[in-house]
Specification:
Layout lengths: L1 H5 L10 E4 L2 E4 L3 E4 H4 L3 E3 L15 E4 L4 E2 L2 E2 L5 E3 L1 H5 L11 E4 L7 E3 L8 E2 L2 E4 L7 H9 L1 H10 L10 H4 L3 E4 L2 H39 L15 E4 L2 E4 L3 E4 H4 E5 L11 E8 L7 E3 L4 E3 L1 H5 L11 E4 L10 E4 L4 E2 L3 E6 L5 H10 L1 H5 L12 H6 L1 E4 L2 H39 L8
Parallel strand pairs: 5-11, 18-23, 19-22
Antiparallel strand pairs: 1-2, 3-13, 4-12, 5-8, 6-7, 9-10, 9-12, 14-15, 16-25, 17-24, 18-20, 21-22, 21-24
Helix pairs in contact: 4-7, 7-13, 10-13
Length: about 425
């Protein structure tokens, strides 16, 4: 945005603004280098800090991996003794100082909170607080595009990116008067508080859903209208309701997989038939595809068309993909790494979807033990599902799907709030919108 601003002709300048090296800013703002904003910048302990670690110590020794944007995950930090802390005054921090990651994720900055006053740090840039600027405002500026782009221009390294403090002290920022710095920091801090609250609400909803799955999918708790007068019975997996049954997927459903048309034949690709791979399977509902094949691609390969409602399970893939499930919301084909599972009318697909999510870790442990751990059709057919009658399955699935919808709504609100914050930062930190 600053590049666009810098091209504005003097006659087109908004009233009360001026051209600067960082773009168009209000006339009463200044452009300052970091070393002009703060009287002191330094580097935390540069030698390996592990020689100072002490299991009996009480002083956190912060490192870059514990820093995120204006947040320090200090609870997991190694400790040093108060004696060692006194021997390392140059890297000792005061509440209000800023710490910036130098190696790994360079440029990420946080303000030292009051509870970390007097702690220590290693291999990070320290920007000392001073009465002439707001630490929280400067933190937002350094984490913004204005700040991070300057880091990107001077960082080096391949395996781990890093930058030198000798470059960083000359980074330039648009600087408003101190009262406006504080107003900007307060406005952005309020949005951050909302983001934190939404994060906590989502975590709480997820925990509640996990507990609800544990109760409903094992029959330990029955929904109103189900199970009256029924007892329990002992099975190979423990005690279950006497009117529930343990069934293998292969006994109650059909399991197949798809295929991949030849990549060398352009007539097979970029058609209108959705073609799903395991990268899209993530405990979700799939209503579109990232790739598409043609009718010829479908006809002359092992790919098959599966109807909406088909349950997909990833048999192999990168990372934690194996064992994840999804439900097709559209007619689609899949590759050979996706198992497609369909059931008759006496089984609720959505219930099985939630049950397999509940059993995710156990399913991963069923995989074969070759060079690469994978699932296959026989293993999937042997997976056991605890089933009530279809009406109770549908009722349980509705409860869990409603909880998913609540979580999704909160996640949408969180994403929107994060987007709003980015827009606010661009407006407030460049002076386009004034808080005066």
């Amino acid at each position: 945005m600053t590049n666009e601003q810098s091209t504005i002709d003097n006659n087109q300048l908004p009233k009360g603004c001026k051209h600067t090296e960082v773009g168009v800013i209000p006339e009463d703002w200044e452009v300052k280098r970091l070393k002009q904003i703060s009287p002191s910048q330094s580097v935390g302990l540069v030698i390996n800090p592990s020689s100072y670690f002490d299991n009996e110590g009480s002083v956190p020794m912060l490192v870059g991996s514990q820093i995120s944007e204006n947040h320090i995950n200090w609870e997991l930090a190694n400790r040093i003794s108060s004696v060692s802390n006194e021997l390392l005054p140059a890297s000792r921090l005061t509440a209000g100082d800023l710490v910036t990651v130098r190696v790994g994720n360079p440029g990420v900055t946080a303000v030292v909170p009051p509870e970390l006053d007097g702690c220590n740090c290693a291999s990070m840039m320290i920007v000392r607080q001073y009465s002439s600027f707001s630490s929280l405002w400067l933190c937002y500026v350094m984490n913004s595009r204005i700040g991070r782009s300057q880091v990107e221009h001077v960082q080096y390294g391949t395996a781990q990116k890093q930058f030198n403090i000798s470059d960083a002290i000359d980074f330039t920022y648009p600087v408003p008067p101190l009262p406006e710095q504080r107003s900007i920091a307060q406005a952005l801090s309020d949005v951050d508080a909302l983001i934190t609250a939404l994060d906590k609400a989502i975590a709480k909803k997820r925990a509640i859903k996990t507990a609800t799955m544990q109760q409903l999918l094992t029959g330990k708790k029955r929904l109103p209208g189900f199970g009256e007068g029924k007892g329990d019975r002992q099975t190979e997996i423990g005690v279950i309701p006497e009117d529930w049954n343990l069934r293998n997927i292969g006994d109650i459903g059909s399991v197949s997989s798809g295929g991949t048309p030849s990549r060398t034949n352009p007539k097979y690709w970029n058609g209108s038939i959705p073609w799903v791979t395991t990268t899209q399977i993530d405990f979700n509902i799939i209503n579109n595809a990232e790739q598409f094949i043609t009718t010829d691609g479908l006809k002359y390969s092992a790919a098959k068309l599966f109807p909406p409602g088909t349950l997909l399970m990833a048999m192999y893939g990168q990372g934690k993909t194996r064992g994840k499930v999804a439900i097709l919301d559209v007619e689609a084909s899949t590759n050979q790494a996706c198992a497609a599972i369909t059931f008759g009318r006496d089984v609720c697909q959505s219930y099985v979807f939630h049950y397999l999510i509940f059993q995710y870790e156990a399913i991963r442990n069923l995989s074969n033990t070759g060079n690469q751990e994978n699932l296959n059709g026989l293993i999937i057919k042997s997976i056991q599902i605890l089933l009530a009658n279809v009406e109770e399955q549908q009722a349980i699935a509705t409860v869990l799907s409603d909880m998913d919808a609540e979580i999704a709504a909160l996640e949408t609100r969180l994403a929107k709030t994060q987007s709003i914050k980015q827009g606010m930062m661009q407006e407030l930190l460049t002076g386009r919108t004034r808080l005066v």
